[in-house]
Design goal:
Elements (H helix, E strand, L loop, with lengths): L10 E11 L4 E7 L9 E2 L1 E4 L6 H13 L5 E8 L10 E9 L7 H6 L2 E5 L10 H16 L15 H12 L5 H11 L2 E8 L7 E6 L1 H8 L7
Length: 227
Amino acid sequence: MNSYQQYSRHLLAIDCIIFGFDGEDLKGLFINRKLEPQKGNLSLMGGFIGENESVDAAAERVLFELTGLGNVYMEQLHCYGAPDRDVHSRVVSIAYFALISIADYNERMLKEHNAVWINLKQVPELIFDHQQMVEDAKERLKQKVANHPIGFALLPLKFTLRQLQALYEAIYEMPLDKRNFTRKIFSIDIIKKLDEKEKTSSRKGSFYYVFDEEKYKLLEKEGLKFI
């Protein structure tokens, strides 16, 4: 007799908190739930872990199926397993958060999954404990970007200093002093200035920058304090 048979079996799920940045606001990607219970209500993107899948592989699969994107920043957040979190069955969910560029997300995928980008300051009620997942992911993101340049995953390949500051203001939900922010960014020397300018926001234009990943990796070993 299998010694495990005396124990109850539970469903194991993945939920993905997908962050995006539109140049002004930090946003999350949500869907209208297709299944009961709470069919039609706003939900995080998710799915169940396959019999022969690792947890990380399942998270990558769910993210790809719902966004069409691979090779994006994704990190395990927390395990949510309250007995009554899903009224339909005993479901334990492992949550991940991912950072993608909104511009890279295909409009066709939005329609296919009935998905919508929502400003994280204006998220309506979500199903189950998904609101807690979002709040936990926001706090983890604040902690991570203080020491790691993962926020660059939310920006286009080329960005201005104004866009970079706007991103960190959106993440921290507070204004940052422009002079101090710029001084700090230049002091750690991980962005490279291009000759090209963005000219839609002003006649003079603002220079574009790109992230120097190799230089950051060298600084990271020395204990870099990013922000």
